[in-house]
Amino acid sequence: RNMGDDSYIESRWVGVACLSWLQVLIIGIPIILLTRRQPVAAYFTRVAIVFLICVSMLLFMFLPKMRLMSQPQETPASGVYQLRVAPNTSPSTETESRLRHRINELEKMSGEARQGKARSSDSQPCRPIDASYSTEIG
Q1: pTM of model > 0.85
Q2: From CA 111, how far away is CA 117, in angstroms rounded?
Q3: 3-state helix, strand, coil in the chain (%, to 5)
Q4: Angle at the Cα of 65 (from 63 to 70), degrees rounded to 5?
């Protein structure tokens, strides 16, 4: 079946794992025959062969997937996850203009507060800060 993306196809890695099993057996069987009269060496050889067969399958199946997952995506995100920005503007200029506008508002409020203190001690409280300005940076 054609899935479009070849990065997660496992048949190639199953084939490579089977070839590694064949290589382990080609080397392991003569060693088993040589060590059949020495129980400790024969036991170690059999355990090593089982270990190499199991680990080779696990490594050839999961290392390619882990390598693909650790690499950054080459294609851009699609649809829902793309950043939506007004036409002909970039995110940095839009954020920059919002920040400049907010700075101007704060300077104006600061100037009014200084003038109000000079006139009377009953100045009006400052307007609360809008939460949308503090979370959009970064």
Answers
A1: no
A2: 10
A3: 70, 0, 30
A4: 95
Q: How confident is residue 81, by pLDDT bands cut at 50, 70 and 90?
A: very low
Residue (of 137, 58, 52, 55) closest to 102 by Cα position? 137
Task: Name the E strands within 23-85.
Answer: none
- Listing DSSP states for 69-134 in one string gives HHSPPSSPP-GGGSPP--TT--HHHHHHHHHHHHHHHHHHHHHHHHHHHHH-S-PPPPPPPPHHHH
Check pLDDT > 50 for residue 29. Answer: yes
- Going by C-alpha positions, the residue among 89, 26, 79 that lies closest to residue 52 is 26
CA distance 134 to 103: 12
